[in-house]
Amino acid sequence: MSDINRRALIKSLVSGGVGSYLAINSGILNAFSGGNAGKSTWNSYGSSIVIDGLSVAFSLREPVSEEALGIFKSSGISALNMTVPYPGDDYSETLKKVEKAKSIIEQNSNYLRLIQSASDILKAKQESKLGIIMGFQSTEMFDESLSGISEFAKMGVKIMQVSYNGPSILGSGGLVKEDSGITSLGKKAIEIMEAEKVLIDLSHSGKKTVSSAIRQSKRPVVISHTGCNAIYDHPRNNDDTELKAAADTGGLVGVYLMPFLEGGEHEIKADVVIEHILHAYKVCGEDHVAIGSDQGVVPVNDGPEYRESIRKEVERRIAAGISAPGETPNRPPFIPELNSERRMELIAYKLSQKGIPDRVVEKIIGKNWLRVFATVWN
């Protein structure tokens, strides 16, 4: 496939995605709900390290509002992995966005902290700040020399994927029909990422790419935001063998709060999320399951206007033939019962109600991420 055709396919596959990118591009996350989606509390939440393996805190296009900064503080989240460039951004655009993200963090240093080590997360917790881990979900910022990996790593990018939904120079995404696995360039990229102490993320990757990347890696890898095919079979979810293989590297799998956890057009309930977490817990073990919500910290302003905008946008993508598999106009790209800045506490509470010991709940909502970060980054 030529570079031009590859870029065109990547853009079409990217435009079919939902979740945090759709919310940012629609301006939805700049509004926020006036109340908490749930009142359930978990007593150990305030003292726990809480890490979201994929989220978004702020837009790069406008100043962070005082209201949003207050929500960051009240969320109880110690750190999150924030995708800085959009899939499809080239080197130049990515460079601008990494510099912009760092500038925004510095400008709001009373509330935000750039995370470059596991100890930085502990400091963010102590200071009641939201730690921002800069990450990539795509590879368009790299050329065949792969020099950008080291450059961006030195700028503080600590997590990198080998593919998004489509084909990349490193491997294949989950929506590629013929997944050839990690490429020869991908093998070199993994070596460089590991040498630069960058955490390798296999989210969005096809089955062969996941398995071959794991065989190539020598350090822990993660699948930061996914669901379990054993519960609901979907191209964005992973089989038990893939989940277990990632866990066996010493890494983990993060369960997302996306509409790919169950079929149909109805709103997905929080219990479905818990079902996926508990399945991953059973397959991978207590040290290798976590949360990667793929949701913004600021809750969605979920009302008639928002629902109508989502319905029209999904119908447009369906008509254009670029919608994601299973995407429907009447299903929002989030879990309404968990539409809260305290969603991680709500998940902890529900896990506790299922009989999961508090020490294990602490691992799932943050300590497992902290362990993996400490292993790879240090």
TrEMBL record:
It holds the Pfam family Peptidase_M19. Gene3D superfamilies: Metal-dependent hydrolases. PROSITE patterns: RENAL_DIPEPTIDASE_2. Coiled coil: none annotated. InterPro entries: Metal_Hydrolase, Pept_M19. PANTHER family: DIPEPTIDASE (PTHR10443:SF12), MICROSOMAL DIPEPTIDASE (PTHR10443). This is Dipeptidase. The lineage of its organism: Bacteria, Pseudomonadati, Pseudomonadota, Gammaproteobacteria, Cellvibrionales.
